[in-house]
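Thread: quick sanity check before group meeting

JM: Hey all, I'm pulling together slides for Thursday and realized we never actually wrote out the predicted structure for the chain we discussed last week. Dropping the sequence here so it's in one place. If anyone has concerns about the input, flag it before I start.
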Amino acid sequence: MKKYIYICLLLTSFFSLSSFKNDEINLAGNWHFEMDRQDAGVTEKWYNRNLSDNIKLPGSMAQFLKGDEITLKTKWTGSIYDSSFYFVPRLKKFREPGNIHIPFWLTPARHYVGVAWYQKEVNIPSNWKGKTIMLHLERAHIETRVWINDKEVGLQNSLVAPHVYNLTPYLSIGKQRITIRIDNRIKEINVGPDSHSITDHTQGNWNGIIGKIALESFSPVYIDDIQIYPDVKNRKAKVKITVNNATQKVFDGKLSISAKSFNSPISDQTQEITSNVTVAKQTENSIELELPFGKGMQTWDEFDPALYHLEAKLVSKEVNFEKTVQFGMREFKIEGNHFMINGIPVVLRGTVNNCEFPLTGYPATTVEAWEKIFRTIKSYGLNHVRFHSWCPPEAAFIAADKIGLYLQPEGPSWPNHGPKIGLGQPVDKFIYDETLRMDKEYGNYASFTMLSAGNEPAGNQVKYLNEFVDFWKAKDNRHVYTGMSVGGSWPVVPNAEYQVRGGVRGLKWEKMPETESDFSAGIAPFKVPFVAHEIGQYCVFPNFDEIKKYTGVYRAKNFEMFREDLADHHMGDQAKDFLNASGKLQVLCYKNEIEKMLRTPGFGGFQALGLQDFPGQGTALVGVLDAFFEEKGYVTAKEYSRFCNQTVPLAKISKFVYTNNETFKAEIDLFHSGKAPLNNVIISWTIKNEKENVLSSGSFAPKTFENGNGLFAGNITFALSEIKEASKLNLEVKVNGTTFANDWNFWVYPEKNPENTSTVYYTTVLDDKAKEVLDKGGKVFLNAAGKVVKGKEVEMHFLPVFWNTSWFKMRPPHVTGMLIQDKSPAFSDFPTSFHSDLQWWDIQNRSQVMNLEDFPTDFRPLIQPIDTWFMNRRLALVFEAQVGNGKIVVSSADIGPDVQNKPAAKQLFYSLQKYMNSDQFNPKNKLDFETIKDIFTTPSREVFNTYTKDSPDELKPNSNQNKVK
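JM (edit): ok, ran it. Output follows.
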């Protein structure tokens, strides 16, 4: 455990934003500690005695093994929607004491929801006499109460901002005792048990303080707050400064401000502006100053994130106080249905951050940690991050400012599954209180461009959110405002400046994959920017190599359970292949959905869920990166950013499978969201085969492209008559003179294949004739489409599992891609990789799968659908075997001589027939005839059962622990 602690302490070392010329006592280190399970500490005056245990801060209780072991009766904060884990017989071993494996989320080292006390003695130096003394607690979770010696100072409750206490009336010179009571129970204020600010699904409901912990001492007349409002067009900024006078005398002094750039190649500095200031005794005064900039003013955006430090000085005979604030000169506005950054249209390409911090269970508070995350995000061509129902610490805003990302923090609430908005519950006021705190603490940061009240609410939401948006539009013009980020079934909030909504997303591939359609009809009713909510959610199989990364507070017990269950189903050796095959399909789906948005004129942007995995809600492995923001091995940032970037070549293609009597046609378009137009650029294209031979190429006349989606570049036609054999071809489009390029595979098959004399008996029924042929040493091809019984309950689409099957109680699809034995000669005339690609659509989509639960443990089909990892059934779409004296190929996909209008299915059947008629047809495994026949007569022994329609009573989200009282 020492290793975990060292890592976590490294991650939680704190920083200071503002530079004060005053004294500070760092309170990080050892603290006395005690758990208060009965909540008796206030009555028993624990603040007036020494606490019996010890802990280190910053940190959490779980980090130092304070709290309870995980059991089946652990009362989690997050909702559990699939309670089958508690009842499934095969998972019984994972419910045994000493072997508890929770599948819903990562498992913390310890769990504790309740009251805990923290205490430290500090020596107040004599030169602090007469000064203002503040206690700064960054990211305390959740409610704090503070005592100095035996006097209570107060109570604060915030999930988004530091808890800051004025200790001036309570502290004396010399040794003093600070006692902090922290309560992480959900009480009167219930933001929702699944809010990412508190839930076990992501960061966890921890108890502790994780950021800066310090006593700050400064003049009793001081600058309490600075808010900077840029006016880019007029090269100036309005600076609103609040001066606090805690003395018994009127303060008369001078206030001066100036700004200097600090991170851009060309330095810029303003003149100093000075003003007289008067503040009455025991009060505060707000002063507004105008700070002009010269011709060298630097602006901030994603391309050139130039920043300034504003230095404010408050001076009199007795006072010399300075404060420095980071800001950027930028204007993030809305014009029509476009976001604008400094007058330039910008399309948001975003990911959703859910507070995934698997080493600590709580968010990083260092700029360095956030810079690493944000640089990774930007390397994948993204320019935007939404924080789902939480607000990150200040370090995230500092890092995003430096790197150039547009942030949408949210009120720390998902007011659903218990609480509701607009009904007078405490959460109503709390959302306002929290967003006000966010604006004060982080409003100056250039990256803070957007604000949402939270996620997917229940209640009287339209009225409440209309008023919320109106309040913020009137209060602060530095950001743009929406109601809450919602799915497609939520009511529209008319006053929202932009919409973050589902309903206009996804791939409609029920008919055939294509890249011609767009989302124009879906966004047409909206006259403001439309940002697609939580796009993607395409699942990938777990990466079990990730388990060893969990060296901190959390363990991936969910992954461990899935790995062992896969081995119990005799497929443990296939885990890496399942990961890579499902991963390639996942990337293909993200590529096509993102491109569909990029070719939609007027589309405002998207927020993918996500670039990285979501560790909770049943384990939602929807990212191309893991929860550590690291690659899984099947796609790189360079590859991903070909289709997700500030400039992306696009191709409108009607289909991806052709016969050689057709002509391939494509309209070439461009997406561009750059700092400036692309002037007189040439777009070129090339069509190659798998041997990298160029079959055709060309370019379009030079053209200038302004910012926009789906900008027309030119048309391509390519006659396919010279393609004589089944081929995979690739169209690549480049913007010459840049690194921007994109490509698409398509497949061409002979319109008519050679006719071969066949000795294969083709049948659609495993009948006596088939048995006779096999007994005599013959060959049988069984097209069993529509006949499967064992596996009938498994629904396969071409698109993979959405989010995960546990969270949605086994809603289909259940399969996440296919693993194909592509090196087998069975595919000699059907070009394929080891994973599903677009040529498999008419074979794979909506086909039945076969459950091989009674087959030999080492049996591997030619085409193996990859089951949801909650079931791990051994499945087949096509397999081969020796039966009796003969050999058989069985397909539950509809492939045969009579299949019409399915060129890929027709070509696959030809390839398999040619293979079966060759000397290479020599299946490894031998099966009994009855074993195969059983697939078409006997149901699966193991079928998913929810067991209950809801969670066990004690785990319900509206149970006593979560009820609004």
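AS: nice. The chain has 13 helices and 52 strands. The longest strand covers residues 708-719.
JM: adding both to the slides.
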